[in-house]
Specification:
The structure is a single chain. This protein has 249 residues and is an alpha+beta fold. Helix content is 33%, strand content 27%. The chain is built from eight helices and eleven strands. Strands 3-2-1-4-8 form a five-stranded mixed β-sheet. Strands 5-6-7 form a three-stranded antiparallel β-sheet, covered by helices on one side. Strand 9 and strand 10 form a beta hairpin. Helix 5 packs across helix 7. The longest helix is centred in the N-terminal third of the chain and has 16 residues. It starts with a strand and ends with a helix.
Length: 249
């Protein structure tokens, strides 16, 4: 029986990356999640990817690996697969495609993570059949992608649709990209965490639940903490959700 051709898929963000084995119909056969961090070296990512793929191959029999596809949170040179810049991972001009091709001896494609998600949503998800599509993703950062006239539109610099660094307030909060007042600095996951930590510090009584959910450690109050508290009806968390939603809207 011929082996199934399977692609290694990687989704790399500022707090975690996921590695999966994906068949020709877009079905995920197995996946594993790994924590990432700001400033991690490309060698860490490559070695982690190799370990993850070895673990996944042990779970799925009768496959042949034919390529690697990477969605990376940052601006990508579509020709070379180089990460030009990534505020949430802390990379500049990192030749990721080259490093992964050397590690796996397979063809590698590296694209922006939300552009990858946009394309898949258009091909396999709720955007099927659409001529034009906008996809907005809110995670650690905020990204966007565009399908125009039935094609993924990247723009001249490869970053079309990336709304996360649109300026809301030119004298506003400092963003990880170095600019002030970016949308991401108000509604990205890391920004929600900072807003929540500041709110808990200002209002210790109102922030008791969020602090308790974080194990009493203010630094562990995250966007997930805010969400968890808001779902219980916590007033301070609900107010934060409302503020972030207004900024995002």
């Amino acid at each position: 029986m011929a082996a199934r051709e399977v692609t290694i898929g990687m989704d790399v963000g500022g707090t975690k990356w996921e590695t999966a084995l994906v068949d020709g119909q877009g079905r995920i056969l197995a996946s594993v999640r790994t924590a990432s961090r700001y400033g991690m070296r490309v060698e860490e990512l490559v070695e982690g990817a190799r370990a993850s793929v070895a673990k996944l191959k042990a779970q799925v029999e009768g496959i042949e690996l034919v390529g690697v596809g990477v969605g990376f949170a940052g601006q990508i040179d579509p020709e070379t697969g180089t990460v030009i810049g990534s505020p949430n991972v802390g990379w500049q001009n990192v030749p990721l495609k080259e490093a992964l091709e050397f590690a796996f001896n397979l063809p590698v494609v590296v694209v922006n993570d939300v552009q990858a998600a946009t394309w898949v949503e258009w091909k396999l998800g709720s955007g099927r059949g659409a001529t034009h599509l906008a996809c907005i993703f809110v995670g650690t950062g905020i990204g966007g992608g565009l399908i125009l006239d039935g094609k993924l539109y990247r723009g001249s610099a490869g970053s079309a649709g990336e709304i996360g660094h649109t300026i809301l307030n030119a004298q506003g909060t400092l963003c990880r990209c170095g600019a002030q007042g970016c949308l991401e600095a108000y509604a990205g996951g890391w920004a929600i965490a900072l807003r929540a930590q500041e709110a808990v510090q200002r209002d210790t009584e109102g922030g008791r639940l969020m602090l308790a959910l974080a194990g009493g450690d203010l630094r562990q109050v995250t966007a997930a903490t805010v969400s968890q508290a808001a779902h219980t009806g916590d007033p301070l968390a609900a107010r934060l959700v409302q503020e972030v939603g207004a900024d995002l809207g």
